[in-house]
Amino acid sequence: MKYKNETHYGCDIFLVDKNYKYLLWYEVSEEDYRNANLMKKIEGMVNSFTIREIDAKTVGKLLDPDKVVLSDKKRTVSGDTFSMDVPINWKKNIDTDMLKNYGNDSLSVTVTVIDKGDNSFTEFTKFLEENMSDLGYKVNTNTTVSEKGVTCKKYIVYYTRNDIEYRDEVYIFQKGNKIMTIDLIADNLFYGTKNSKILNDVWQSFTLK
User: Which of 14, 19, 27, 191 has the smallest CB count inside 10 Å?
Assistant: First the structure.
């Protein structure tokens, strides 16, 4: 696995007995991977794993996580100016009048609402674009699109926080005297077809009041 400046090595081991499935997983840095003594200890620990037959009548039925897709189940969240559907297992991380954020460890959506003030929308986005690099954002695309009945500036940007690279799909538009920004954010390491669809579904459900 490739992080910004690091390579990590991992191993997944799947085991199945009569009633249950097991997953063993570990991840180590490149430095640890090249440490023969440490890897010997890790592999010894993994190889020592044994399965003890569990009494299914005592433990009961355990849900198979591969068959439970919580991201397919939605709940509606809203603010004064919008509503949208997010996966039911996403947490509310921030909830203020100006900023709302929902997500999990690898995906999130942020809605920001600010007063336009004396600046025009064009002046606001121009200022933002001129300062993106200073804020640590690398702009991949910059387009103007019509979405949700308004004209939006759409950006796809990348940035790094705590050695994790994030992909951020940004929509900015004006509604009345407010400027709204919607950030659809993904840990870029996990941005694939499934997570792309989850974020797209959130955006498609986004409705202005």
Answer: 14
